[in-house]
Amino acid sequence: MGGPDGMQGRVAVQGLVKRFGPVNAVDHVSLEVSSGEFLALLGPSGSGKTTILMAIAGFEYPDEGRILIGGEEVTWAPPNRRNLGMVFQRYTLFPHMSVLENIAFPLKMRGVGRAEREERARAALATVRLGQMGGRKPAQLSGGQQQRVAIARAIVYRPRVLLMDEPLSALDKNLREEMQIEIKHLQREIGITVIFVTHDQTEALTMADRVAVLDHGRLQQLGAPRELYEAPETVFVAGFVGETNFCEGRLARPAARGEAVMVALDGGGTMPAIAAQALPAGGRIKVALRPERLRVLPADGEGGTARVTEAIYAGNATTLMLEGQGGQRLRARVPAGAGLHEPRPGEAVRLSWQPADARAFPA
Amino acid sequence: MSRRPSRFLLGGRRYSPAASLLLAAPFLLLVAVIFILPLATLLHESLFVPAPTTAHYARAFAEPVYLRVMLRTLRIAALVTALALLLAWPVAWAMSRSRGLGLALLGAAVLLPLWTSVLVRTYAWMVLLQRNGVVNQLLLQAGLADAPVRLLYTEGAVVLAMAHVLLPFMVLPIYSALKGIPEEYSRAARMLGASAWSTFREVTWPLALPGVTSGCLMVFLLALGFFVTPALIGGPQQMMIATLVSQQVREMLDWPFAGALVGILLVFVLAVTIAFKRAVRLDRFVGSA
Amino acid sequence: MALNAAAYAVTVFLLLPTLIIAPMSVGPERLLSFPPKGFSLRWYAAYFEDRDWLRATLFSAEAGLISAVCATVIGTMLALALVRGRLPGKGLIELLVIGPVIVPHIALAVAMFLVFEQLRLTGTLLGFAMAHTVLALPFVVFTLLAALYRFDVELERAALSCGAGPLRAFRHVTLPLIAPGLVSAALFAFIISFDEAVVSFFISDLDRKTLPRKMFEDIDFNISPTLAAVATMLTALTILALLLGFGLKRGLERRARAAGTAAEAGP
């Protein structure tokens, strides 16, 4: 790591701003990707994730900021001079060329001789397990096969970085999950840097080493999947990544980040939590709590703190819809087969959680 | 590499205004010299020669001969449009409901005339309709006439031949509108209790209307300025405005008056076009060939 | 069904006048009749022996070829600017594109006659080529607009990401995929020029005239049987051109989008 070879696949985005009319599609985003890393850009549509990818690819020029690849500035270089691989959302195989011609195309553009072109294209085709398909036209392949050919075409010239723009969104669920694993394997095998745009949080969490969450053009959080899920830093990340209960309330005194606090809930009662950000006194607070971190206990005659309104059985777990004393609506998930209490609808229950699992944000 | 490149053509993204203008430049230049300049020169003749005047325009409306030609032009264009619509509807409908060989045959029957020289088709009508032509031979043989009937140089012949020549311009837009109406719509209407006639009136016709408007407009506009067919098939009694313009230019050498006639024609055509702006669609003719 | 019967009747009406000329053109007599009284190619021979007819045909072919090439190149450039570019005054330019279709040809013809006299373009190949290019451009532009809208711009981006420069991306990816549109457009332009009668009627001179102008004169003076031969050959040529164009277009399309539909059928 850190040697000249290890620098090749490094990508740095510094203070990137891209405006479309009055809207900041990308608003001062900075991030670094190290060589061989798999970074996912995650966000809803309009979050700026694709614009960042397009700026790295060279299809958009930023209004402010710089882009560096392998330590070299490429902000204004045309796309064909950046030596990046790109896989598009809709396969975009050239329909008039055979599969093999498609894969050999970037080599042809780089002046590689015919014999070597064919050999390397065949090797790339074997890498994506489509060795027999070279003579076919793209239209004769299935969606999954087409996307594998697109990957082969993007890696055949051994680029330092592979950009992927929602490459799996056109595939159906089973194929998508299969391809997620396959892409991940391929990336480890050839040790390429991957920047992967997706709006699917499960996909981002499963595939990426680190995930950058974006909303309205701003970088919300950049971290490993576990950090994002367990320690979201903004309300948006808490809500966008995974399922979450939000309880609203107020705080009597200010709190520093990481401090344990007691939030006075709107409907009455208090809730122990820790401050995910610095919290002002008297301000409105939102507490985020994952359904599976909420423990549901029998009321034991002492009078419950919530009532079960509905229980939805889903095989591996049961989801409970709960109503708190203050009228808050919560969801809890009880894993099956762990011998835990599984209350019926209408039953009064007691709720409990680790204060560290309840994260308080300014609302 | 630290400066924004000022290159013209950037593949994969939108071309800059400068690059776009550069691409459009040959077109603009050609159209300026071969389209705008000639028309402007002609209209200039009509308004400023020998001195600034509207007299040439006034003359076109004041003299009954010319007024009659203009009114006749409107009447013939309207009749041609009506006849073409009547003839085109069954063809367009049959095309929209057939596939394979049937569609190919009907399509060929419409496209072949579209791309056959107007002169060839006009000539064919002259051969058929002349005094000792095919139609008269048939009429005599069948005993329907005692002597050859005068067919050529009648308004009926002009209307018939023009409708024939312009028919593809009516069929194609109607076909393209009808093709877009799923057959399920009329089936659904029938299931809901509509008669065949109500289905046509309430479902098919309103949905086909944009195509019908487009076709009628094209045929009407083309008929207004039509030169070849009326000039050859019509006699002096059937003179339309195009022939009158030609006569003013070639025989009378009266450029200002010819300019005024063209000016009137242009104003009329432009007014109709702007009124039905959305119906003027060329894609219907090029897409289907 | 009644409507179907009407459709085929109209089809016959559409085709018959043009097609009936063919058998009549091989009749031996000066007075054309149907059915022909015998078989003779004398009217075809008359055409090929007449220098005037041949010169007019050659002149039309030259004008047609030049117009087809010019209209296709200029029209493609404009269509690219309209689809891909940011054109100031786009609405006005679109109006100019349909202009030559909306403005009656008689108006254009007379106007060109007036200006061409002054520019000494009357009766010149250049004059015809320019006039016919303008007349063909609307059809070329609309054909190419359709082709370009069907073309997926992402493919060009893919080519750039593969390392092709903008020009190579255009040549290797865009051009082969819009080729069917280009072929149709060029064919349209050629036929429009070759058959154009009204403008030709005014901007020809005594020696340099196009085939339609020559036909116009012959029809106007005497309906000579040679015309029947010419009309038959022109119709045959049109059928041939349409078949050729259709076949070529189909071939290019097949090359462009391989026949299989496995993509839709696959998982």
From TrEMBL, chain A:
Any one GO biological process: putrescine transport
Catalytic reaction list: ATP + H2O + polyamine-[polyamine-binding protein]Side 1 = ADP + phosphate + polyamineSide 2 + [polyamine-binding protein]Side 1
Cellular component terms (Gene Ontology): ATP-binding cassette (ABC) transporter complex
One MF annotation (Gene Ontology) recorded for this entry: ATP binding
ABC transporter domain: residues covered: 11-241
One Pfam family hit: TOBE_2
Keyword Cell membrane: yes
Keyword flag Acyltransferase: no
EC number(s) on file: 7.6.2.11
Keywords: ATP-binding, Cell membrane, Membrane, Nucleotide-binding, Translocase, Transport
InterPro entries in the cross-refs: AAA+_ATPase, ABC_SmlMolc_Importer, ABC_transporter-like_ATP-bd, ABC_transporter-like_CS, Mo/tungstate-bd_C_term_dom, P-loop_NTPase, PotA-like, Transp-assoc_OB_typ2
Role this protein plays: Part of the ABC transporter complex PotABCD involved in spermidine/putrescine import. Responsible for energy coupling to the transport system.
Classification via NCBIfam families: potA (TIGR01187)
Subunit structure: The complex is composed of two ATP-binding proteins (PotA), two transmembrane proteins (PotB and PotC) and a solute-binding protein (PotD).
Family listed: Belongs to the ABC transporter superfamily. Spermidine/putrescine importer (TC 3.A.1.11.1) family.
Protein name: Spermidine/putrescine import ATP-binding protein PotA
Automatic annotation (TrEMBL), chain B:
Membrane topology category: Multi-pass membrane protein
Xref: CDD domains: TM_PBP2 (cd06261)
GO CC field: plasma membrane
Compartments where located: Cell membrane
Primary location class: membrane
Statement: the UniProt record of this protein carries the keyword Lipid biosynthesis: no
Alphabetized Pfam families for the sequence: BPD_transp_1 (PF00528)
Keyword annotations from UniProtKB, A to Z: Cell membrane, Membrane, Transmembrane, Transmembrane helix, Transport
InterPro entries (alphabetical): MetI-like (IPR000515), MetI-like_sf (IPR035906)
Residues in coiled coil: none
One GO biological process term: transmembrane transport
Residue ranges constituting the ABC transmembrane type-1 domain according to the UniProt record: 70-276
Superkingdom, natural source: Bacteria
Family, as annotated: Belongs to the binding-protein-dependent transport system permease family. CysTW subfamily.
Protein name: ABC transporter permease
Taxonomy of the source species: Bacteria, Pseudomonadati, Pseudomonadota, Alphaproteobacteria, Acetobacterales
UniProtKB/TrEMBL annotation, chain C:
Topology in the lipid bilayer: Multi-pass membrane protein
A single BP term in Gene Ontology: transmembrane transport
A matching Pfam family: BPD_transp_1
Boundaries of every ABC transmembrane type-1 domain copy: 57-245
Gene3D superfamilies found in the cross-reference section: MetI-like
Domain of life, per lineage: Bacteria
SUPFAM superfamilies (alphabetical): MetI-like
InterPro entries given in the database record: MetI-like, MetI-like_sf
A GO term from the CC aspect: plasma membrane
Chief location: membrane
Signal peptide annotation: none
CDD domains, alphabetized: TM_PBP2
Cellular localization per UniProt: Cell inner membrane; Cell membrane
Residue spans crossing the bilayer: 7-26, 63-83, 95-116, 128-149, 177-203, 223-248
Keywords assigned: Cell inner membrane, Cell membrane, Membrane, Transmembrane, Transmembrane helix, Transport
Family: Belongs to the binding-protein-dependent transport system permease family.
Protein name as it appears in the record: ABC transporter permease
Organism of provenance: Teichococcus rhizosphaerae
